[in-house]
Amino acid sequence: MKYKVLLFDADETLFDFKKSERHAFINTMEDYGYDFDEEIHLKSYHEINTAIWKEFEQGQITQDKLKVERFRRYKETLQLQFDPKDFAGKYMHHLSYASFLYPESEKLLKKLHGTYMLAIITNGLTDVQSRRIRKSVVSHYFDEIVISEEIMVSKPDPEIFSHTLKRLGHEDLESVLMIGDSLSSDIRGGINFGVDTCWYNPSKKVNISDIKPTYEVEELMGILDYL
Q1: What is the pLDDT of residues 103-150, one digit of tens each?
Q2: Of the residues 96, 113, 133, which one is the last residue of a structural domain?
Q3: What is the pTM of this model?
Q4: Residues 193 and 132 in one domain
Q5: Which helix (H) or strand (E) holds 108?
Q6: How many structural domains comprise the chain?
Q7: Catalytic residue among 9, 16, 157, 196
Q8: Among this protein's residues, is 9 annotated catalytic?
Q9: CA 33 to each of CA 46, 79, 81: distance values in angstroms, whole numbers, following the listed order
């Protein structure tokens, strides 16, 4: 058995974050009395949120500032009337209760549990991810759950991977596999750290970057083919 430790990304790999995000956004807009229009409100937020998390990955903005800044930009873009800090608090509260798994996730983890050491490494906010992940129905499958805000280091920084392996008490990098949907965060991070990587690519995106994963799968259960 080549691999002994499997490191998983959380959102858009095991957890359906888009579904969670939509759920939280609808509830937050309703809190303010806005009639929710997915094509206007959610689409605009997705664009702003995606851009600002890329800024975070590149070290251009802190995670603490990101929490409110994305909603300040959102307010200005759509010319809405709300306090960005208050909106951020309500949104993150709703998001923390929105934990949805992909259909294959629990089946895969159940099969892997007991054979491999399992851990989650997520670039997320503690108040949100702790409830969504640590209190999810699959949390007991993991030996460690590492949230970037808690340790002030995020993917693709190799230090978050090093921190996770230290908590697992594992040193052999050749027996570690990082699994995630993001080339720039999960796969680049794994490569930077020196471990094999598996790109979860259900949308069959074409990889035109210089980031080359060890493996690529379109279905979660396809990971089993490489173990």
Answers
A1: 999 999 999 999 999 999 999 889 899 999 999 999 999 999 999 999
A2: 96
A3: 0.90
A4: yes
A5: helix 105-112
A6: 2
A7: 9
A8: yes
A9: 20, 15, 11
